[in-house]
């Protein structure tokens, strides 16, 4: 394509409606993405395992992951104003690496986010089932609990993004509040034997198990990049989206590090690992009961359930907007991207996502699978690996975009951040895969199959893109172009002829 020509026109759409415009401010976006990470769940449910594997240096792993993702966000958000689509990773990769890689990334994103969301229904079912039994004395089969949650998530997503943001705001304040209450109780009492900084010493930070902790620490940030999925619904997106991205990842990094450190202090740096080994599932509940009171432990059990529910709402919204972007770009059928005339939600995409969740939950239930060990751990794993691969690809795409496609907008900071974050994220992906048994608790054969879903998905997406380019060039031309954009993105200086 000559340097002076414009990209092929994306597929046009008529009468399908638009997402609500200008309804999300910085705070709402932060609520959406932090809620997706489910802070209370990843702390109470996963952080004890991080302490067991990595020792008292575990708090630093969360801080280090946040630093890496902040560097990634610098490159990521610098490209935001040049991307008109609401397709997040998909659109960025299509702009930087070409449409073929963009469609492969879109399929990987759909697989990853669906895996993360549907797998977590297993966790929701286990937590809610236990809470109903302990607090109310009611026993409900886990599939019914999971399917009930699916229906409630669909309802909030159907009512529109502004309603979802308000619900998530309330739930997020409650779950972070209970963790802060626990930390304050520990600090006010001086911990088990006085407060110390052993977690931040070289011996703790570079202990052999810390590499494995990255498998948990990066997973704790899942969904932070979804700020750009709400570009069309954000107020002043060129300012709001980057600001919300930095605030979200910065808050999570400092918050996670502080909370895990406070739990280490609750038992003492010399006894924290043994405490984790003795009671992984109850470690956080033991701390809050001892330092705040039994009522707080009961409240934390209840809020763990609401934390998981909040993450499901956030992921449901994110998946729907990926499907919406793909439909408006002409990749998925047009009817998938239809917007509700009253609520402004991509409700048909939501119905499809809900149907998929129901099918997967039903299959696991009929097979007699364990909702935690199989539905959660096995289904989640390809999603976690897939998102890290997408982040690595997006970092490479930002470098390619500024160096090859839009040199006029390139800055040393944007390019340098893209290169640095790409290298760091690639290393993190390798460490995650190398320690994948920590996430799955499964056999090597199962682990190979679970990780293998990621390259298989990319291969299928690449084949689909090549087929579209050969058979439906007009649809291929729309990949990543953002056909639903009302205002065009910042003009680019195209400096390369390669758009594959």
Describe the structure.
- This protein is 70% helix and 0% strand.
- The protein has 500 residues and is mainly alpha-helical.
- The protein has helices at residues 26-37, 39-54, 58-78, 89-97, 99-136, 142-158, 161-189, 202-205, 210-217, 237-267, 272-278, 283-291, 294-328, 347-366, 371-405, 412-434, 437-440, 444-471, 473-476.
- The protein has a single domain (26-476), classed as Up-down Bundle (Amino acid/polyamine transporter I), CATH 1.20.1740.10.
- It is globular, with a radius of gyration of 22 Å.
- Residues 30-472 form the Amino acid permease/ SLC12A domain.
Write the topology of this structure.
Layout: H1 26-37, H2 39-54, H3 58-78, H4 89-97, H5 99-136, H6 142-158, H7 161-189, H8 202-205, H9 210-217, H10 237-267, H11 272-278, H12 283-291, H13 294-328, H14 347-366, H15 371-405, H16 412-434, H17 437-440, H18 444-471, H19 473-476
